[in-house]
Specification:
single chain; about 160 residues; alpha+beta; Ubiquitin-like (UB roll); five-stranded mixed beta sheet; 5 strands; about 15% strand; elongated
Length: about 160
């Protein structure tokens, strides 16, 4: 029998250790670790404007905004409140509507306000407008309407036919 070269036994031990299954954590433990990591992340000056219960989606949007891959569209609601919504640079009207819906849902969940809005009713009752032009085509890109970073779109009530 040939002698094993030096280090072969150590390599076999390392391989055996590498094959051990990783330590399994309970869902609650993983969630806690994730929340702690997010809390550390939002202390970064780039992300300090985000709420404490931030989502990974919100962090991604903020980073995309910083790198110029996204833009903020201010949506002026019928009650006069302005909501900043982050969308990708080449977003369509439909993507803006979805981002607005997500933003409002997250805010409601954090504040404990009204838990359900009928978005079907909202889009049936209101148009989004920019510089007096209705954003009527959901497939059309925001830039085709001339919407750029920090521009403001408004809700306007539809007229009855």
């Amino acid at each position: 029998m040939a002698a094993e070269p030096e280090g072969a036994a150590e390599g076999a031990e390392a391989a055996a250790v590498a094959e051990e299954p990783p330590e399994e954590l309970a869902h609650a433990e993983v969630l806690e670790l994730f929340q702690e990591a997010l809390a550390r992340l939002v202390q970064d000056p780039l992300l300090c404007d985000l709420p404490p219960q931030v989502t990974a989606e919100e962090i991604g949007s903020q980073v995309a905004l910083e790198y110029g891959q996204a833009m903020t569209v201010r949506v002026c609601k019928a009650d006069g409140e302005t909501v900043p919504v982050v969308v990708v640079q080449n977003a369509s009207v439909l993507e803006l509507k979805k981002a607005l819906r997500r933003h409002i849902q997250l805010r409601q969940a954090r504040q404990g306000g009204v838990q359900h809005l009928s978005w079907k009713y909202i889009w049936r009752t209101y148009h989004l407008t920019f510089n007096g032009e209705k954003l009527a085509d959901d497939r059309k890109k925001l830039r085709e309407y001339g919407i750029r970073n920090r521009d403001e779109v408004s809700f306007i009530k539809k007229l009855r036919k």
